[in-house]
Amino acid sequence: MFNVTVDIERGCFESTIFGFWTLDTIGEFHRAVTEAGRRIQATGRAPISLCDYTGAMTQSQEVIAALTKIMENPIVRSRRVAMYTGDVMPRMQAVRATRNRPEFRFFTDKDEARVWLFADEAGGAPGVADAQAG
Hints:
Helix content is 35%, strand content 25%. With 134 residues, it is an alpha/beta fold.
């Protein structure tokens, strides 16, 4: 249902989300991203996140509500989140769940997402045409 990996050098955790989730899945995901956030914060950095949502299915409203709540956790909250998506409906759900979160940007391509996410490290944001919907 998900994978979470940590790149300590870049202060980034990457999550891959796929399938249809239950509240049990949400609990497992929350534990995994909390641990990832703690590992990065222990280095003195605020995390950044790359999220692969291309394999996600349209989720139940209770799952979306729980995901939204997870994003409020200060340990999990990232200073920048680049999410790349595939299907329209899961993308619409993700956009709606993060509509008041300016740190989120949405892309259809992983490489474009990475360019935007790591732009601060390179000394400035490039003119990437991100597809943030709002």
